[in-house]
Write a structure and sequence with these properties.
Layout: H1 8-19, H2 26-33, H3 37-52, E1 57-61, E2 65-69, H4 72-84, H5 91-104, H6 111-118, H7 122-131, H8 133-138, E3 142-146, E4 150-154, H9 157-170, H10 174-182, H11 189-193, H12 205-217, H13 219-223, H14 228-246, H15 263-283, H16 289-300, H17 317-334, H18 342-360, H19 369-377, H20 379-392, H21 400-415, H22 418-421, E5 423-428, H23 433-446, E6 450-456, E7 471-474, E8 486-487, H24 494-518, H25 530-549, E9 552-554, H26 561-572, H27 580-593, E10 603-610, E11 617-630, E12 636-648, H28 653-666, H29 670-678, H30 681-697
Parallel strand pairs: 5-6, 5-7, 7-8, 9-11, 10-12
Antiparallel strand pairs: 1-2, 3-4, 11-12
Length: 698
């Protein structure tokens, strides 16, 4: 007898029918389950096919209602199966199981067969097929309906595996999964077969253990930084791949031109190749190159550590520019300055780098209530991030959960200064304590930045020092009241909440700016030890050296870019370089490796580190005529200014930080880009002086 997979509501109906042997009315079932008669009628219709498997009939008799008819032994068997069945089998789980069944079948399958397998009615299967259409559409999967034969899912092998593995992953708890794999000897065949999770049984036990054993061998070298969820996804996908390969299904049409080409690709392919070498020995089968590339792409999409320092060969200047643009756009819309948060920039750069790779062949998402809660709590931020991601990456489809993870980075940056965000509000209410408490409760629920709320009657306003409060709210208009305040209703409507949230962000921004303005350079505080002072002095010396050597140079006319860069490097030989020709060659090679033109400007940033460079250096060279170079957005840039940034190799952390201040400032905003693009030497000198002073004060 097949296992019984039914919803909680269906299970409850069967329990009632087994207890009430003389029959129950439709109204009785409706009252017991707290649903409408129509819903009960639909559930009873669905149950008929389930009960038929046990040779039990559901009949309806006038004046009695519904009751079960069958042999006592069959009732006992049904009851045993009922209590042995999983506690939860939601509509979503049923639909996931339906998708897996369709994708693992190469031939047509009849509706009746699916209904029997999933223990539901044919009408429920038809309704489920409508519900899963969106998933199929996103993965270019077509459902063909053939008269008298049934239905068939038409999909590429790569999409089949992604969906099957993604759905299995979403239904298996990480703790249970790894506990099972780490205790292989305890997981006897009988226990595996009697397991309560039907999705785990989609995987062959031996294949799963083999895959996990191989992946574990690479853990310390490649997978030690990934999350449990990501590792579980990879293990399940590889297990599904092995099972499909053993059945003769290979990936033969994988689009290799979509495989990203960066420095991480080689390591991903090497890891995928090594994993499959083990599998070939275990199973004695040949693995096509498309299989290795497909697995390599999935590995490449994991959140592996990336070097994001500006001078690294691995640094993606184009993506770095787009991440800066994303931060700027979100800052503008949220009226919150995220631009100064370098931690946010580097976290986003690392995350979006991996997210773009995952977007090439995305797996279906698992349900995560926490992500839903974050999306709701930061609704405006979520909307802004989603809209601007679409604007900056129009050809990339980010799944909802991926967007929320990006929102989390912004939310973390927003929450990083809790002391500044703790606001004190005065609430003026003339309607009594009850109304005031309602308003206070609404404020605490929807505006957590307001941590202190004091309530006052109008008759006591003359005793209050309004300067003690960050904002004042009143339920009535206060004629002649000179201090700034906002009028709100006691129930605090949604539009009022949004208005106050915007007002709060403005206040917090002003407090942050005020904090920066008030900070002074104090070298004799008790907390500052000698080593801290020494490091500060080193940074100050480096910054001063860069500033002293900065200039806006006018170059003479030359025919080609190579000659211009060679002439610049030759002029620096002696004081800054020991081998100008070598540095010029390296700069040109770097330009060939990755575009350096800055979009919507007339400048390009030439940069490199080398052992022949003596000290950090930054200057700007004005050309007599424009030259076309490729921009980091892959569009032409009519270059009029060469921004030259050089550093010794190895580059110290302090030197990297000082030069990083400049590279970040160049693309920080439209204003700063225009300063570097067309500013005079005095303006540039003043700006860099202020930049270093502001950064080093922190």
């Amino acid at each position: 007898m097949k296992e019984l997979y039914i919803s909680n509501r269906e299970k409850k109906i069967i329990e009632i029918l087994l207890e009430q042997k003389n029959g129950v009315s439709l109204d009785y079932l409706s009252d017991e389950l707290q649903v409408s008669n129509r819903t009960i009628y639909r559930e009873l219709s669905s149950l008929e096919s389930t009960l038929a498997q046990y040779q039990i009939k559901l009949i309806r008799e006038l004046d009695i209602g519904y009751r079960l008819v069958g042999k006592p032994a069959l009732f006992r068997e049904l009851q045993q199966q009922l209590y042995a069945s999983p506690e939860e089998f939601t509509a979503q789980q049923r639909q996931s199981a339906l998708v897996i069944k369709l994708l693992t079948q190469e031939n047509e399958v009849k509706m009746e067969s699916l209904a029997i397998d999933l223990q539901v009615s044919i009408s429920t299967i038809q309704a489920d097929l409508v519900s899963i259409e969106e998933v199929f559409k996103a993965y270019q999967i077509d459902i063909e309906r053939k008269k008298a034969k049934g239905i068939q899912a038409m999909a590429s092998e790569s999409n089949r595996r992604l969906i099957i593995s993604g759905l299995i992953h979403s239904e298996i708890n990480e703790y249970d999964f790894f506990q099972l794999l780490e205790n292989e000897t305890k997981a006897q065949d009988k226990e595996w077969g009697n397991g309560q999770n039907p999705f785990l049984k989609q995987l062959t036990k031996e294949d799963l253990y083999h895959v996990y054993a191989v992946v574990k061998q690479f853990g310390q070298h490649y997978f030690d930084e990934v999350t449990d969820s990501q590792l579980q996804r990879l293990v399940i996908l590889l297990c599904v791949s092995i099972m499909r390969l053993r059945e003769g299904y290979q990936i033969t049409s994988f689009k290799t031109n979509t495989f990203l080409t960066d420095s991480n690709q080689t390591k991903s392919l090497e890891t995928a190749t090594a994993i499959y070498e083990f599998m070939q020995k275990l199973y004695g089968m040949t693995i096509p190159k498309e299989e290795i590339q497909f697995l390599g792409l999935q590995i490449q999409g994991l959140n592996v550590p990336l070097r994001n320092d500006f001078f690294s060969q691995e640094y993606d200047a184009d993506l770095g520019y787009k991440v800066r643009e994303l931060i700027q756009l979100v800052s503008n819309e949220m009226d919150w300055n995220f631009n100064q948060d370098e931690t946010l920039f580097h976290d986003l750069l690392a995350h979006i780098t991996a997210a773009l790779k995952r977007a090439i062949a995305p797996m279906p998402e698992s349900n995560n209530p926490l992500l839903d809660k974050i999306s709701t709590q930061y609704s405006q931020l979520s909307f802004s991030v989603k809209e601007n991601l679409t604007h900056i990456f129009p050809l990339i489809h980010f799944l909802p959960n991926e967007i929320v993870y990006i929102v989390i980075h912004f939310a973390s940056a927003y929450e990083r200064q809790p002391k500044i965000q703790e606001l004190k509000a005065l609430v003026i209410c003339s309607s009594g304590v009850g109304t005031a408490k309602i308003l206070e409760s609404r404020i605490r629920k929807h505006i957590p930045e307001i941590t202190v709320i004091e309530i006052s009657r109008i008759s006591k306003l003359h005793r209050i020092d309004f300067n003690e409060y960050d904002l004042i709210l009143s339920t009535i208009f206060l004629q002649g009241f000179e201090t700034e305040y906002k009028v709100v209703t006691p129930l605090l409507m949604d539009n009022e909440i949004k208005s106050i949230q915007l007002y709060v962000r403005q206040i917090i921004n002003e407090k942050i700016k005020g904090k920066v303005r008030k900070e002074t350079l104090v070298l004799t505080t008790p907390q500052t030890d000698k080593s801290e002072f020494k490091e500060f002095y080193q940074k100050l010396t480096l910054a001063n050296g860069v500033l002293e050597n900065f200039d806006l140079h006018q170059t003479i006319g030359m025919m080609d870019l190579n000659s211009i860069i060679s002439a610049i490097c030759e002029s620096l030989e002696g004081e800054f370089l020991t081998d100008g020709k070598h540095v010029a060659t390296k700069l040109m090679e770097r330009m060939e490796l990755a575009p350096i033109g800055l979009p919507n400007t007339n400048m390009a940033l030439f940069h490199c580190i080398d052992a022949t460079i003596k000290q950090p250096f930054f200057s700007i060279y004005e050309l007599p005529n424009t030259m076309d170079v490729l921009g980091i957005d892959r569009n032409p840039v009519h270059m009029k200014r060469v921004l030259m940034m050089l550093g010794p190799d190895p580059l110290s952390e302090n030197a990297q930080e000082i030069l990083g201040f400049i590279s970040s400032a160049i693309v920080e905003s439209d204003l700063t880009m225009e300063i570097f693009n067309s500013g005079s030497e005095p303006l540039l000198n003043n700006y860099l002086s202020g930049l270093f002073l502001e950064k080093l004060k922190k």
